[in-house]
Design brief:
Blueprint lengths: L7 H6 L3 E7 L3 E7 L7 H11 L7 E5 L5 E4 L2 H20 L7 E6 L13 E3 L11 E2 L12 H8 L9 E9 L3 E8 L4 E9 L4 H11 L1 H4 L8 E7 L2 E7 L14 H20 L12 E3 L5 E3 L6 H10 L9 H4 L6 H11 L25 H10 L10 H6 L1 H6 L4 H19 L3
This protein binds adenosine-5'-triphosphate and magnesium ion.
Adenosine-5'-triphosphate binds next to strand 8, strand 9, strand 10 and strand 12.
């Protein structure tokens, strides 16, 4: 089985653990822990104490696969709970499902009064001792101008983005589900891309989406768009990500092969990274490949939240020219389907007009492109999903190997020139 080749045990060591503390009749509080495997019983009680200050909690429970409650009162029992939880995570990963947070139920506590604690986030990320006393996170500090990007990412990644701190500027584009704006984040002085999607859904579903998006904080790759946080205001969700000044690939006309090759390398690396986290992209296409004037290429809009994807799908029709045949005909979706979309993304739009399900796969015109490029695309677009290259085969393909030289200057110069051309065509502002 392909998933196992990535070694889920290894991935687990760096896993950010999300513990969902359930509060009777009051929803839940999500607690993000960086040092999951080393977590102590006392740490959990400390956090429960902060969430339910009026109650005295001495133990908590979790549910096993049959829904039976198991009590935890010691480090030993904590270990048993964590190893049970990690085994369920592995199962979810192997099945390509999204990872559920670890749900716990505080016990022996008095009701916590009428305080509204919905949506409260508790973070214990920082701290030298890995499990220093957890603290309820404050609002973003106002003196955070000119932060280093790592520092900024940490602040922003605390899930503290909110509407008041954001000034919307230009519209970058409209998609099927929403609109993307260029925006200014006042506390950090940073430019963001904010995707706003209208969703008329229940509070429960909103919470589910927010918790599913948590996995994005964990994505840390130069080939994946940086995620800064998300929030709901009334019936719309705003998802804040890194702004890419070159925009998406769909707006560029014919891309020369030596540039396209470097872009393909980045896209393959981005996908390989997502797959290693057991995330399927599910929407690989040129408009979800972003470039900047530094020559970086990053993937965006991958489907980490099933609920978000479902909620959008209810409103909008969900097929496009980049989808694999097995997807269009409603069969199982897997890494191979992402690989198809990767192949077709790098073909000229003209060939996309062919009927993908019934006819032969589209092919590139002979003579116009190099042999390795044509071979790469053809392999990615084999009709039978299993015949398409596996992740390690993609990385080892001669077309990818040839351009895997880390030469960002090639892409950078091409982006800069294209933007320049666009500006001169538009005339003075
Ligand atoms: P779909 O909704 O079917 O995925 P789409 O990808 O074109 O289509 P959006 O994801 O809403 O739609 O994006 C709209 C446009 O906004 C994109 O085509 C892209 O040009 C621009 N865009 C999106 N994210 C960013 C970003 N982080 N930086 C710069 N531009 C972006
Ligand atoms: Mg998009």
């Amino acid at each position: 089985m392909l998933w196992l080749a990535f070694g889920p045990f290894h991935a687990m060591e760096n896993q950010v653990l999300v513990i969902r503390i359930k509060i009777p009749n009051r929803g839940a509080v999500d607690w993000t822990v960086n040092s999951g495997p080393q977590l102590l019983f006392r740490d959990v009680l400390d956090v429960i104490g902060q969430v339910l200050p009026e109650a005295t909690t001495t133990a908590f429970e979790y549910e096993d696969e049959d829904g039976d409650r198991i009590t935890v009162r010691s480090d030993e029992e904590m270990k048993a709970m964590l190893s049970y939880y990690y085994s369920t995570v592995m199962e979810q990963q192997v099945n390509g499902q999204l990872i559920e947070p670890l749900q716990i139920f505080p016990r022996a506590c008095k009701p916590p009064g009428e305080r509204n604690i919905h949506g409260l986030k508790v973070n214990t990320r920082a701290g030298p001792s890995q499990h220093s006393s957890p603290a309820v996170s404050d609002a973003l500090p106002s003196n955070s101008l000119k932060k280093s990007s790592a520092e900024l990412k940490k602040i922003l990644a605390n899930g503290q983005m909110n509407e008041q701190d954001i000034r919307y500027r230009d519209t970058l584009g409209h998609g099927n589900g929403g609109t993307v704006y260029k925006a200014y984040h006042v506390p950090s002085g940073k430019i963001l891309a904010v995707k706003v999607i209208l969703l008329d859904i229940t509070l429960e579903l909103q919470k589910q989406i927010m918790s599913e998006l948590e996995i994005l904080y964990k994505c840390d790759s130069s080939y994946i768009i940086g995620f800064y946080g998300a929030f709901f205001v009334e019936n719309r969700i705003s998802i804040c990500t890194e702004f890419m000044d070159g925009g998406s690939l769909d707006v560029y006309r014919k891309i020369p092969e030596h540039v396209l090759g470097r872009i393909a390398v980045a896209v393959v690396k981005g996908l390989t990274y997502l797959w290693s986290l057991k995330i399927l992209h599910r929407d690989v296409k040129p408009s979800n490949m972003l470039v900047n004037t530094r020559g970086q290429v990053k993937l965006c809009d991958f489907g980490v939240s099933t609920q978000l994807v479902n909620s959008i799908a209810k409103t909008y029709v969900g097929t496009n020219a980049y989808m694999a045949p097995e997807r269009i005909s409603g069969e199982q979706y897997g890494i191979h389907s992402d690989v198809w979309s990767l192949g077709i993304s790098f073909m000229e739009p003209l060939q996309l007009l062919q009927c993908i399900v019934d006819e032969d796969s589209p092919v590139l015109p002979v003579g116009e492109f190099s042999e390795p490029f044509v071979h790469f695309i053809t392999q990615c677009m084999r009709k039978q999903p299993k015949e398409r290259p596996a992740p390690e085969e993609l990385m080892g393909h001669p077309f990818i190997v040839q351009f895997n030289d880390g030469n960002a200057a090639v892409v950078s110069m091409w982006v800069c020139r294209a933007l320049e051309e666009r500006r001169s065509q538009q005339g003075p502002p």
